[in-house]
Amino acid sequence: MSTKIRELLADPLDLPLKEPFKIATGIKDAAWNVLIRVVLEDGTVGFGEVSPSPYTTGDTQGTVLAVMEQLRPSVVGQDIRHWRRLLNDTRKAVRNQVGAHSGLEIAVLDAFGKARGISLAEMFGGVRQSVETDMTLSLGTPEKAGEDARKFVGEGFRKLKIKVGLDVETDADRIVAVRDNAPDVEISLDANQGFSPKDAVELVARANARGARIGMFEQPVRRDDFEGMRFVREHCPLPVAADETVFTPEDALRVAREGAADMINIKVAKCGILGALEIISIARVANIGLMIGGMMESKIGLAASVHLACGFGCFHHHDLDTVYLLKPFECEGGFRQEGPHFSVEGITAGTGVKYDPT
Ligand SMILES: [Mg+2]
User: Fold this and answer.
1) Under a CB-based contact definition with an 8 Å cutoff, are residues 78 and 104 in contact?
2) Can you name the residues that pair with 49 across neighbouring β-strands?
3) Average pLDDT over residues 25-42
4) How far is CA 246 from CA 144, 196, 225, 235, in A?
5) What pLDDT shows up at residue 358?
6) In the chain, what are the domain boundaries?
7) Helix, strand or coil, per DSSP, at residue 226
8) Does position 46 have pLDDT exceeding 80, yes or no?
9) The domain made up of 122-343 is a member of CATH 3.20.20.120
10) How far apart are CA 103 and CA 278, in angstroms?
C-alpha cells in the first residue's frame, strides 16, 4: 500500500440552506463551501471541507481555491505517514488563510486514518462515542422564535442557542418566547459581537428577571474588546464564551491572561485541526471551559469536529447543528445522526466520509 499523495483537489461546493439564516453580522441563504480531496497513490481519498465566512474569517470560496492551488506543490508527492511534518510545512508555505488550512488538515487526517485503519475519534483519544448538539435559532420575531423552539423540542433537541445582538428589547422578548414554548430546554445566547458591554448585561438582566434562566452567553461584544468581555463576565451570573475573539492559540492565551471569558468556542474553520489541538491544551491548563462549533459545513467537514469532540470528550457544549441548517445532503459515513445525537460508533477509518461530487 502506497501512502504517498498523488493528487490534491479543491472544488466549489455550493449548498443551499433550508431557510435564510440571520445573525448580528448578516444574513445567509446558501453556503459557498469548498470540497477538498487528498488522493493517495493507492486510490484512498481523504475528504475535507471549508465553509468560508468572509466577515468572520476573511475567507471566501475564491480565496480558499487560490490558496489550495498555491499549496499543491507542498502536498503532492508527500507521504501521509508524516502528516504533522507535511502540515507544519503547508502552514509555513502560506501564512494565515486558516480556512484553507483547516480543510486541508481535515482531508490529510482523513486520508491518514483511512490508510492506517483508525478513526479520527480514536486518533484523538476515543473518550466518547457520541455527543449531543444544540440547535440554533436565527434572528427574527419573538413569534418565530417561539414557533422554532416548539418545533425543535418536538424533534428531540434539549439545548437551544438563540442568536441575539440587534436590539435588547426584542431579543428579551424572543428569549422569553423560547422559554415559554420550551420550558425545559437549556438556553444559551450568541450575539456575534453585536452588543456594547452594558447592553449585553442589560439583556441578561431583563430576560432573567422574566424567568429565562440563560445558561451561557457567547461573544456578547466586539472580538477585540477584551475589557468588554470581562465586564460582561463580571456583571452576569453566567459563563461568557469567546468565539470570534479566539482564532489562534495566541488569542486563547490572551483570553486566559486577561480573564476575558469562562469558555472558548473552538471551530476547526477558525483554527484548523493543528490550532484546535493547541487551544484545547491552553484552555485546559488555564481552567477555561471549551465548546465546539461550526461555520456552515456539511457532514463532510463537520465530521472532523464530531470526531474531535468524541475523541477528546472535553467539550462542555456542542454547537454542531450546521447539518440541520443546510438542505439535506447525501454523503456516506462521517457520523450517525439521531436528532441531537451524533455518534461515531462503527467508523473504523478516518472520518469515514465518502462522497462523489460528480
Ligand atoms: Mg458564535
Assistant:
1) no
2) 35
3) 94
4) 31, 19, 12, 21
5) 83
6) 5-117, 122-343
7) helix
8) yes
9) yes
10) 17
At residue 311, the 3 state secondary structure works out as helix
Query: 79 CA to middle of ligand 1, Å?
Result: 36
Q: Give residue 217 CA to ligand 1 midpoint distance, Å.
A: 9
pTM, rounded to two decimals? 0.97
Query: Is the model's pLDDT at 1 over the cut of 80?
Result: no
Query: Distance from the CA of 192 to the center of ligand 1, in angstroms?
Result: 6
pLDDT tens per residue across span 228-261? 999 999 999 999 999 999 999 999 999 999 999 9
The half-sphere exposure of 142 on its side-chain side, counting CA atoms within 13 A, is 14
Ligand 1 centroid to residue 80 C-alpha, Å: 33
Residue partners of 138: CB distance under 8 A and separation at least 6? 19, 20, 21, 22, 23, 148, 163
Distance from the alpha carbon of residue 308 to the mean position of ligand 1, in angstroms: 18
Question: How far, in Å, from the CA of 272 to the mean position of ligand 1?
Answer: 16
How much distance in Å is there from the Cα of 237 to the middle of ligand 1? Answer: 19
Q: Which CATH class for the 5-117 domain?
A: alpha beta
Q: State how far the Cα of 262 lies from the Cα of 285, in Å rounded to an integer.
A: 13
| C-alpha torsion 176→179→185→187, nearest 10 | 10
Q: Residue 50 forms beta bridges with which residues?
A: 34
Residue ranges of alpha helices (H) inside the chain are: 61-75, 83-93, 98-116, 120-123, 142-154, 168-181, 197-209, 226-235, 249-258, 268-285, 299-312, 322-325
